[in-house]
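Annotated sample (chain length 304).
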Amino acid sequence: MAVTVEADPQVVAALRQKLLDPSTSLQRKYRVLFSLRNIKAKEAHDAMLAALQDESALFRHEVAYCLGQRQDAAALDILTRVLKDTSEHPMVRHEAGEALGAIGTVDCLTRLQDFADDPCLEVAETCQLALQRIEYYNSQAAAHKPDESRYLSIDPTPAAPASTPTAELRATLLDEHARIFDRYRAMFALRNQGGHEAVEALGQSFGARSALLKHEVAYVLGQMQDAHAVDMLRAVLQDGTEHAMVRHEAAEALGSIGDAECLELLKQHCKDPEPIVADSCVVALDMLEFENSGQFEYVDTGST
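Output written by the structure step:
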């Protein structure tokens, strides 16, 4: 379960008002959302559920992600409705499925099974991963195994042991015939290993067929914050034929790395023809500006 804190009800009310105000900028909404994610109160939960009606698909997907990271079982019904809604953007449906996997109760199994063969490949693969994640953590295989990750995210799969040789992890990650669950485990193990050799192995997987896998690779490269990944992430961001969810994660990863070259790349794509990519660059630049300001955490305190 993610760590949450108590907060003054008036602060939560102010945050909710900002979150749902149509005049609030996308960047400010992100700050508010990250504040609410860390607050225990039911009112924070309710505000996040209301934000799933936001006009931005990028923001709706982030709300679903945050509900999963909170491992908030009270969100099961609304996440299931999002997953079922075929008129919803596939990236948002994917994130709802992943959130159900992160929450991981037995009740999530039946909700996910109906979508393991969804016509949208990214949604189907997400639900397959989520089912396998729940089954893994309910099995003896997960018993007494320490978490080798220094990252605080609740990942879609457990990592393979970090002691696994890098060449073996690379081979699994690049194997188009391997289960996506095993490829994800290899990916997270490479992240946990770190270093240029791991980054190079991860970058090679941008040639994979699965957009879902590639988007997660971009995400973990952002977590690693290794400047060695900038060239490969630039190529992904600049490729207008690449899936929007992959380009979106590449933009956010560049923002996490945050050097001068990344800054220029993000500025160049703030008007990208794909709204999800353009919005991702705008938010990434805001996060980068916030980090460079020396402030402690990318949140909104609720004050004006």
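Annotation: Residues 186 and 296 are 32 Å apart (CA to CA).
Annotation: The domain at 156-295 is CATH 1.25.10.10 (Leucine-rich Repeat Variant).
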